[in-house]
């Protein structure tokens, strides 16, 4: 029985998103941009851009049992002509990390991307120190395809950014 579902981001969800995007620890793992806490106006602009750009599809990750939002996920940099998109997942509530919700979200996203969006390739970027995410991606069938060496500066130290990809034909074999 599923624990999660993907939904549009609702106005009521924004209060939770403001909290996550003002948390530098969440942002440290979420993106390769500097983990600088964002104001409400900056978060509003980010999500307005997501909804207005056809190159992005963003979802709230919600609990079936009570409809509460526990994270965000989706696709960015969608190139429809090539049937390619970049996947992202962020479990915002730190107490819910490590409980299998990332894996369930990944399955929902891959199913949506390959079956609903008819993608041929789904790719992602991950920071070298994000070990739980790397483990999830590799268990989901993603292949490490490259490294941007010393791409990210965190706490005055340089880190690599790993590039991963998964083709529909590979996913079909796993599902």
Characterize this entry briefly.
By secondary structure, this protein is α+β, with helices and mostly antiparallel strands.
The level of helicity is 25-40%
**Residues in β-strands, percent:** 25-35%
Instruction: State the CATH superfamily name.
Output: Gcn5-related N-acetyltransferase (GNAT)
Mean pLDDT: 94
Q: What composes the largest sheet?
A: 7 strands, mixed
What's the helix-strand series? EHHHEEEHEHEEH
Structural class label:
alpha+beta
Computed over alpha carbons, the radius of gyration is 16 Å
Instruction: Return residue spans where pLDDT drops below 50 for at least 5 consecutive residues.
Output: none
**Ends: how far apart?**
17 Å
Fold topology:
Layout: E1 4-7, H1 14-21, H2 24-30, H3 40-52, E2 57-63, E3 69-79, E4 84-91, H4 101-116, E5 121-127, H5 131-139, E6 143-154, E7 157-167, H6 168-174
Parallel strand pairs: 4-5
Antiparallel strand pairs: 1-2, 2-3, 3-4, 5-7, 6-7
Plain-language structure description:
With 175 residues, the protein is of the alpha+beta class. It has one domain (4-174): Aminopeptidase. It is 34% helix and 34% strand. It contains six helices and seven strands. It has helices spanning 14-21, 24-30, 40-52, 101-116, 131-139, 168-174, and strands at residues 4-7, 57-63, 69-79, 84-91, 121-127, 143-154, 157-167. It has a seven-stranded mixed β-sheet, with helices on both faces. Strand 3 (69-79) and strand 4 form a beta hairpin. The longest helix has 16 residues, at 101-116. The chain is globular.
């Amino acid at each position: 029985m599923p624990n999660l579902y993907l939904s549009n981001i609702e106005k009521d969800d924004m209060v939770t998103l403001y909290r996550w995007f003002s948390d530098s620890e969440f942002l440290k793992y979420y993106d390769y941009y500097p983990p600088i806490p964002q104001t409400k106006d900056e978060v509003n602009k980010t999500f307005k851009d997501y909804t207005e750009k056809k190159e992005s599809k963003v979802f709230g990750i919600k609990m079936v049992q009570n409809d509460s939002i526990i994270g965000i996920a989706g696709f960015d940099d969608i190139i429809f002509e090539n049937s390619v998109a970049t996947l992202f997942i962020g479990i915002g509530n730190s107490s819910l990390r490590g409980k299998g919700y990332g894996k369930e979200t990944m399955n929902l996203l891959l199913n949506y991307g390959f079956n609903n969006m008819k993608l041929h390739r789904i790719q992602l970027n991950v920071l070298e120190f994000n070990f739980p995410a790397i483990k999830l991606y590799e268990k989901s069938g993603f292949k490490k395809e490259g490294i941007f060496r010393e791409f990210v500066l965190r706490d005055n130290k340089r880190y690599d950014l790993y590039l991963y990809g998964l083709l529909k034909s590979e996913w079909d074999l796993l599902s």
